[in-house]
Amino acid sequence: MGEWGTIQVNLTNMDCSYRTSAEFEFEGIPEQDLEELEGRAVEMFEKGLIGGYDIQITYAHGVGGQLYYDAKLTISGACSGNPIKIYYVFLWFPWKDYPGRELGAKAEVNEELKAFDPIEYILDGVSPGSSKILTFNIFIPPDIRPEEKLLKPYIDIRVHYPGWIDYTLEGYPTEGPFEIQPYRSFNLTITDYDGVTPIAEAKVVIRRLMYYYEKREYVTPENGTISIHRLLEDYYEIRVYWNSSDYLQESQLIHIGKHHAYELASSKTLKTLLFNVEIRVLDLRGRPLDGAEVLLDGVKRVAEKGLARYPLVPNGNHTLQAYWMSLKLLDEWIWVGYHPTLFPEIKKPKYEITLQVGDLVVQAVDSGGSPIGANFTVIDLSGRLPSVTRYSRSGFLNISRIPLSRYLVKALNCSKAFGTCVEASGEYSLGGVSELRLPVHLISFKVYSMSGLELANATISFGPVSAKTDESGSASFPGVPEGEYLVKVFWKDIEVYRDRLKVSGSVVKKIRGKVYDVMLKIRTADGDPFAAKWVLVDPSGRMHAPEVPTDVISLSLIPAGSCELRIFDESNVTVLSKTFEVEELAELEALTLPIKNLVVKVIWEDGSPISGAKISLSEIGGNKSYESVTSSSGEARFDRIPYSRYSLTVYYPRTSLAIIKENVTFSGDPIEVEAKQAQVQVKVVDWLDNPLRDALVRLHVSGIVLGELRTRVDGVASFSKLPNLPAYQLEVKHGPLKVSEVVHPGQVLAVKLGVISFFGLTIYVSDVSSMMPYIVGAAVVFASIAAVIAFKAISARRKTLQYEEG
């Protein structure tokens, strides 16, 4: 609450920029006035406003008992300064709980104050125009600290000093006696022990200690706040009385204590022994019991989220009762607040009570312990609660928050698919999960392929029901009664398993369906990899084909049955088209194609190889053709030739003359063909029937040269290993002479040319008559040369004989 006060401040311009001196003479000045003047001079000297003074009395006389003087006053070093303009003054207190200038007061001045003149003050007792009396209305808080009542205020002054800028002189101390009167005016709120809820209609009695006759009494209004005026700074005994209309109360005195005025003013509240009681109601699992009925001293509250609140409960013993589902489950006493032995230190009145309330949890299971749906009937054997019926698809029964008792639980399971109903019952109590086992069974299947892979999304037909397997290849059939059932498994709509199963308990059965993985290497008959395009149509009608040619057929999870497989070469020609059983393909490691490297060997009748012969191979009824040339061994190689019928043509080496034409069948073995051969011998003689050497003999047929030879010394040129033809064209050339003949296989043909060959000289017959003289001369020369050679030989022989004899 606090109070407003008035403070007056005398503001004086004490500027002392320079000092002056002065002398004054007085005639007939009364003694009393002179003493006062001297007193003011002493005051100014002591304050340092003058440097010194001197009073000389020149004459004294008395009149009627009163002395009068003639005197001379000398003042030296007197302060003199400039006028200062004051804009405003702000006054504030440095209280610790109210720091800064929050509660300060401002006074507008806007006047110029001349500098204080100590000479004027000494002479007249005042210095007009140098001071200003300022009045401030300031708020005094109710809770300043006791030691701060003598704390003097500070002022902030906004001024203009001549020749300088405007500025504010902050935190300037004040002088002179000051004290705040030792009384406090404040509001005091009477509350509960938590300081939250105000207490209305409470009687408050305040007595000053040691002065009990000083007593004040108040009655709190609705807001619980009373106003206390001018409470002297001292210690007081305070008693608060209040009567509860709801709860048991041992005494109306809810507070007694010794308090200081500052304590009351600063706290602003007075806490009493009235408590806000919180009662948290829990079940056996520690969960809040929402909706529980709690009675404290008969006052009923319904717990919200398990919490019941009771405001302004007096200190003492109280009855507590709790109800759940209209059944009383708790009846006891609780102590609230202070107790000299039980609770010497007051604790917050927060209580937790646990009622005998829990969950009835029953799981209906089959013979294997797997959950199964059921219709439940629950009967309280104590007869306090009505029976309950519920259906649970999962077979899980959870009746939450019921009183502790023994309960009879019946479970009924009916299967439309199997056309049966089974029932079981048992007695159960609260807490934990209980099992109620019914005489039905869980049949679980785990389906694998033949290679051990889990078959997801397979269809299992079990008696009258069916189900799809999950990602792990599993499927379960709950609630199966005893009996024998037909089990079928379908993969991609193809039946891959069939058997009968007898059920007398829960079963987990592993099934290996006729589903296969195919991993085939595509190989030629030579065992070489063969990259090909292929198409496989599995038993479900699904088509499988690679995007690019490959030498492997890799397929997974193909159902059993017949499948169509076609394999194509690089020209998209079918090399294999066949129906297989999937099981057969799964067992194979490699698929051998009717393709192999073909070796064709070409020989003459005598078995000698024909080298350099071109071979042409054409598929009969197809558009495939191949070519190759025989090696020195007479063999030609054709890579990756499909098994088939072929037309084979062999050409005479380095010619286009076919020497063999026949149809052959390639089934993987080498092919050998034989060519008929012929030979021709030609003897070339001159005009005198002498053998003619180096004649050029050429054998050809229709422009195709079969051979070309030079005659030997004996004039013979032999042609062997010729194609067996009816006739050959023969051409003999010697110089300008040229003779053509027809020769037949095996014939020895003599060809005479019009030329004479003599001692290395060649003379054509057409030139003999014109050259006769030369021929005779040549004969003489040859004879002479022969004689000389013979003579030299005889001489050499003779020398040799002589040497041997010597």
**Estimated structural class:** mainly beta
Low-confidence segments, ≥5 residues, pLDDT <50? Answer: 774-791, 793-806
Major sheet attributes: 4 strands, antiparallel
First and last CA, distance: 179 Å
Q: What is the arithmetic mean of pLDDT?
A: 89
Number of domains: 9
Strand order of the largest sheet: 6-5-8-9
Estimate the helix proportion, in percent: under 10%
Q: Strand portion, in percent?
A: over 45%
Number of helices: 5
Measured on Cα atoms, how large is the radius of gyration?
72 Å
Structural account:
The termini are far apart. The longest helix is centred in the C-terminal third of the chain and has 34 residues, at 772-805. The radius of gyration is 72 Å and the shape is elongated. The chain folds into nine domains: 3-173, no CATH class; 183-271, Sandwich (Immunoglobulin-like); 275-355, Immunoglobulin-like, CATH 2.60.40; 358-437, Immunoglobulins (Immunoglobulin-like), CATH 2.60.40; 441-512, Immunoglobulin-like; 515-592, Sandwich (Immunoglobulin-like), CATH 2.60.40.10; 595-675, Immunoglobulin-like (Sandwich), CATH 2.60.40; 677-767, Immunoglobulin-like (Sandwich), CATH 2.60.40.10; and more. The protein is built from five helices and 60 strands. The protein has 806 residues and is mostly beta strands.
Describe this structure in a few short sentences.
With 806 residues, the protein is mainly beta. Helices cover 9% and strands 55% of the residues.
